Task: structure prediction
Amino acid sequence: MQFWYSRSWIAWLLCPFSLLFWLITTVRRALFRLNLLKSYRASIPVVIVGNLSVGGNGKTPAVIWLVQELTKCGLNVGVISRGYGSKAKNYPLLVTPTSDPIEAGDEPVLIATRTQAPVCISPNRQQAIECLLQHAKCDVIISDDGLQHYKLQRDFELVIMDAERGLGNGFLLPSGPLRELPSRLKNVDIIITNGSENQYSDAIMTLKPQYAVNLVTKAQRPLNEFSQATAIAGIGNPPRFFTMLQQHGIQLMETQAFQDHQSFSPELFAKFDKNRPLLMTEKDAVKCMTFAEEHWWYVPVTTEIQGEKAQQFIQKIVQKCGQKM
Result:
């Protein structure tokens, strides 16, 4: 929603609905705080990776980075997710790199592929955690999203934020992009901004691509070898992907932004020039493998998070897990 990033007349017109949204969410959170609504405490530490605003903030790369960093520290890490967009017949569902992304969801399959960590999806996060603990040895659970899911108790909270868009116009849904007021940020453990620094930054996340991978042959090719290409993206913030490619000297002859978690079919690609490389995100690629063509490439990114507070955050988790181990 473009008006979420300015205080236009549309945003002001919707303010009564935002007030109602604030009232409902505030009362609900208070009921959990007073133990009038039941919440679940896992037997091992839980880390929430979430955001205050809707839209593509870079949460999945942050989850992958956190899993990899904690694994380097010797911890056995499990990941749970609601599995947005998944169409599994039964939940909870254990997700592996070979899982069907239509059944398991694109982001859980990507996380499992990149980290090799055990992943479980379910709208009921308690079920997801208990399923993981039954099937894998875990020292810590990372919840992909769920900052506002107060039914799940947590030990740590990491907020990921798009540095450029920030908190938009500062209004709650539907007047703005926020699920909670900006004051909520005072209670989280760390705020990581994606792309650059802003007034909220505790640490900065940079996504660095180096090469593209062919969906059919699995061959790798440096990005600087692509002079012209078509680019598609079905993520929360497609322009960020297109800009990244252009910054690597690639002339984009055609771009197509799809909805986040878009379900792909061969028909959606029929209009694109087959004589030109087609570049997509790794998240999109997991849904296109079964019908990919030889001129299709995906661009994996390496997540780098800079800042002393990021390493301090990792150490706090390790120390907490050490008390449980």
About this structure: Residues 15-33 form the longest helix (19 residues). The radius of gyration is 20 Å.
